[in-house]
Amino acid sequence: MKRSERWLIPALMVPAMFILSFAFAGIIRHDIPAEEYKKYAQQPQFDCVGSLLRDGEHLGTCVLIGERYVLDGASQLLTRKEENTTNDTIQHGSRGTTVVYKPGPMELTGLDRLECVFNGETYKVEEVVFHPEFSKNSVSNFDVSLAVYKLDRKVTGVRPASLNCDLDEKGSVATIVSIGKFTPAKPMRSMRDGEFAKVAGENMIDSIGGPFAPGTEERMELLADFDHTETPYLTNRMGEPYALPLEYMPTASGGIAFIRKDDQWLLAGICSTTIYIMPSPPNFGYYGTCGAWTRVSVFADWIEEQMK
Q1: How many domains are there within the chain?
Q2: Is the pTM of this model over 0.90?
Q3: Does residue 301 lie within any of the structural domains?
Q4: By the 8 A CB rule, do 222 and 272 touch?
């Protein structure tokens, strides 16, 4: 079995390198006011969802799981530098040439410049632990995209999330909380033009899928799609075709999924992938987008081990 890799952050900081990052929250229904999503996110049980910063800039969404411990999707920390991109020219005889751009490997950068913000208070990350099955230079469907951060001090005034340890998530309604830029599903536009806020919405966990978790017979991912409200069968990708009142789909840089059992909110997943599946009629915008969350239940033992 591979060992978890720990990155200790030295107290003496090195000079910062500026990294431009566009971190997005997700997609909301076009026919529901954005204020409804923002209002839902302000409920106190979601105070444990915070913002991850690098060099003081918002990078993504994270969740408090212990007084000094935070869980996050590890792939948020990967950066691909433009200077590492190369290109090859393919000759097609008399028909001309094609230039193929080949992105270079991704890198873990700025681990010594990470901070987490909860309820307006900023905490420095002093240690990062990656799941042993997380690749450090690429994004793979077989990666376990999980990281646990140890903060420089205890977070006060915020109740940490409780982990879901049951493997019965399918069919549950998940509440998904994100921080970042969001946009209505239609008309389709760039998320860079969206509003920045903490938002929360819902989605049905339609399926369990992805590769098997290392050493188990359990699949690694919770799966859902973003259903359309007016013509549900045309964009439905899985499960029931009808949209929930606050239907929501996060991006991979945001999306902490909770499920409610016996009046208790449990942390169920960390968004790892969002895929817009073509073709969809252009007037349907982002409806039909699919998302995957790394299952907390499958990795609960490993997560808890990092907090000892």
Answers
A1: 1
A2: no
A3: yes
A4: no
